[in-house]
Amino acid sequence: MAVAGAGVFSMSTARAATGNFTLNVLHINDMHSRVESISAFDSTCAVDAEAAGECFGGFGRLATKLRERRAELASAGANVLTLDAGDQAQGSLFYITYKGKAEVEFMNTIGFDAMALGNHEFDNGPDTLAEFIELAQFPVISGNTKVADSEKLAGQLEELAVLEVGGEKIGILSVLTAETGILSSPGPNVTFQDEIEYLTEAAARLRADGVNKVLLLSHVGFSRDQEIAAAVEGISAIIGGHSHTLLSNTVEGAPAYATLVENPAGRAVPIVQAFAYSKYLGDLELEFDADGYVVTASGDTVLLDASIIPDAAIEARIAELAEPIERMKTTPVAEVAADIDGSRETCRAGECQMGNAVTDAMLARLDGQDITIAITNGGGLRASIGAGTATMGDVLTVLPFQNTLATMRLSGADIVASLESGVSAIEEGAGRFPQVSGLRFTFDPSVAPNAGRVSAVEVREGDAWVPIDPAKMYGVATNNFMRNGGDGYALFSTNAQDAYDYGPGLEEVLAEYLSNNEPYTPVIDGRITKVE
């Protein structure tokens, strides 16, 4: 696979010529129900932060920018498509409340030409997805997703779209990660074909039908997009999602927008993606030759910051829809038999009851997925829950960051090194202190930081505790912030295998666990021992 990156490119095998067709593609991916504006940490932005100009994205801001950019392009006589590479679902109380109906309403209002199916669109099962598609005023597509005739979804999910723009036919293919069956809840009657196998046939079929400008609107992740580009002949460009990758020509360390991969015919296939949560809008211009290959591509991701004024009508509708969400925060979750201590002083210095509850909940949610260890940061736990009836508001106060459940495989040596980093700043009350499940360890604060404070690390195997094997790979659950290197957990980012960061919100995971175990009794069971 030959890979190169540049914001503007040309290749000797594909020279620009006068009269070539040019198409602008405005695109988002992985919005994850960020209906309201978001903070710098990708969670719902507070009112005071909004007033201070510290917020990003949200449907109101996205609407303003899309309308502004489309008007500019229209005045220049340009050809434009607006595309979404999937995962509108899951990530805020708007999705929990409306199950996608709020998101699709705003997409209809703003105007999209097509949307790829994301794996999280299945989080509440295929019937909920069918209801989303019924409301959509644009095609929702996924060619490698196969739906049995018995399903309500059958006949609603389209394989592909062919759109006429500027007198030219633009074919839009889409694939969804074949791992969706274990990442979400599609049920037994929805299956997923290998992406490359499907695309090889579908791209050839489209071109045989006379549609040679073929965009892939994918939801498989940046790495898989590169593999697809290198393996499949006939795809002109890839607009991707799923991995929440920021491609940019201005953000230091980001892969180039566009990243180029050489296809089997030696032609360049540009790949783009625009991070997630509506924080950025992708703005891509493609020039095609007569054979439908891209000869030049330019553009970048555009940060949707506070300089963009949210659309007033959309903001008013968001406020209207938010009213029952405020009421939902008072919804009872479970009876709690005794106070669950989630205090800063406890959870950043040793084993704490809330840390045990949250990490046990993470493993319970992943039961059957070969994930045996959970690690979360004590600083991510922001409150205690008192005895009595716990509400959703209580849970959200404990876990306010909209972090999501993440999984990975990590070596025993990397787990121990990560625990060492986790206990390295207890003198400062740092939030990195590890709360754990399926794992136990001892730490000695008298030892210098990162010099061997952690010892006696053991993992649970069945009913027994055994020493951790440095060479063995373990299935580990954490939160998406830590999995991406947050709070000093760099090895979670650099050394993880089979990483997946975008499960349900931790608040949902904890609420479900408390409900399933009510009256919940908090525990301290010796999983973290401090040498005095």
Strand order of the largest sheet: 1-12-13-11-10-8-7
- Count of discrete structural domains: 2
CATH top level class name of the largest domain: Alpha Beta
CATH architecture annotation name of the largest domain: 4-Layer Sandwich
Radius of gyration: 24 Å
Range of strand content: 15-25%
Q: Helix share of residues?
A: 25-40%
Find the CATH topology of the largest domain. Purple Acid Phosphatase, chain A, domain 2
The CATH homologous superfamily of the largest domain: Metallo-dependent phosphatases
> How many beta-strand segments?
26
The best one-word shape is globular
Average pLDDT figure: 94
The number of helical runs is 16
**Could you tell me how far the N terminus lies from the C terminus, measured between alpha carbons in angstroms?**
55 Å
Secondary-structure map:
Elements: E1 3-5, E2 21-28, H1 47-51, H2 59-75, E3 80-84, H3 93-98, H4 101-110, E4 114-116, H5 126-135, E5 140-141, E6 145-147, E7 161-165, E8 168-173, H6 180-183, E9 190-192, H7 195-208, E10 213-217, H8 222-231, E11 237-239, E12 259-262, E13 268-272, E14 280-288, E15 294-303, H9 312-328, E16 332-336, H10 344-347, H11 353-365, E17 373-377, E18 388-391, H12 392-398, E19 405-411, H13 412-422, E20 434-437, E21 439-443, E22 454-461, E23 464-467, E24 473-479, H14 480-483, H15 490-494, E25 497-500, H16 506-516, E26 528-530
Parallel strand pairs: 2-3, 3-4, 4-5, 8-10, 10-11, 11-13, 17-24, 21-26
Antiparallel strand pairs: 1-12, 2-14, 6-9, 7-8, 12-13, 14-15, 16-18, 17-20, 19-24, 19-25, 21-22, 22-23
